[in-house]
Amino acid sequence: MKYRAYSLIVVFMLALLLVPFVSFAKADESISLSEKRPLVEYMDYESYRTSHPGAGLSEYFQFLEDYFLDQFPARDAFRKYLVLFRIGALAQFDHHGYYELDGHLGKLDPVLNEKALAHALSILEGVARENLGSEEKPLFALIPDKNVFLLKNSQYPSYAYDALLGQIEEALGEGMDILSLLPHLSIDDYYRTDPHWDQKYLMDVANLLLEQFGFFETSAIQDFELQSFDDYWGTYAGQMAWPVAPDTLNWLSNDTIDKMVVWDLVTGEKSPVYETDKLLSVDPYDLFLGGAKALLRIENSGQHNGRQLIVFRDSFGSSLIPLLAPYYEEVLVIDLRYIAMRSVLERVSFESDADVLFLFSSSVANSPGVFKK
Description:
The chain is an alpha/beta fold.
C-alpha cells in the first residue's frame, strides 16, 4: 500500500511537470475550431507588459494560466471526458451553463435583465425616432431563443418570454408595430447543435414579414433550390464539448439570389449573398451574408420596383434576409452591435418610403451592453 501511494504521487508530479513542458514544446494553436474562438498564445513577460501597459507579475501569471489551459495537450479530448463525467457520472444538469435536452444543445439564460433590456430598447427607439423618416411605422419582430421551446416545464431555470415581449411592447409600442414570431416557429426550426434557426424552414416567417410590408403574391419568386452542407457542428457543440451527431446546414437559392451583389460598406468588399467558401471556415454559418458584418447593401438587379428595405438585425437575420431580398431593389443591413448609428448615416441614405424591420432574437435583446449608440 505504501509503494502504491508513492507511485500515485510520482505519477501526479510527473503529470504536473509534463503538461507545461509539452505545452511549451508543441507549436501553439491560434484557433480552436471546435469552440470557434481564438486561443491564447505564448508571450514572454516583456512582450506581455508591452501589449498590456501597467500590468505586473500577477496579471502575467493569470495570462500564463489561461495560456496553459488553452494550449493543454489533447485539450478537446479532455473537455469531452470532463463533460461526460460531470453530466453522465455526477448527474449535473449543465456544464458551464450549456445543457443537452431532447436531442438539442442549449445555453442557459435564466435572468431577464430588465435594466439592460430597457437601455437597449431606448437605443433602438432613438434610432427609429431620430433617423428614420419612413412614412409607415417600423416593424419590430422578436425571434424566440431555443430556451423558450426547450425549457418550458423543465427543471432548468429560465425567464418568461412573455415578460420580455411585454417590456418591448411597452417601450416601443407607440413608435413601432411589434410582432412575436413565437407562434410561427417550433424547436424543429432550429439546429440541434447551434442557437440559430434553419433557413430551410423559414419560408412561413419570410412570407409573414413580407405580408406586413404589403407583399401578398409571393409565389412567383419562391422557386428555390435546396442546397446542403453535411457535418455541421454548431457553436454549442464545440462550447459544450458534448458528443453529438452533426447537423446539416441548409440554404435556399435561385437565380434571383445568385445574381444579387452584397457590398460591405465598411470595407468596400463585394461578395455574393451566399459565401460558400465560408463552409470550410471556423464557422460555416458565416455562409449567410459573410457572417458578422456591420453594414451591408444588397443590390438586386432583378427587381426594378424602387423599393428599399432597411433591416436592423443580429446573426439570425443573416439567414432570413436572403428570403426577403428578392422583393426589393435594395436592402440595407445594419448590425448595431458593431457600428454606431452616426457611422451608418455617413455611408448610407434612407428613402422616406422605405420598409423598416428591426429583427432581433430574445437572447440578443436580453444581453447587457449589446448595442452601440
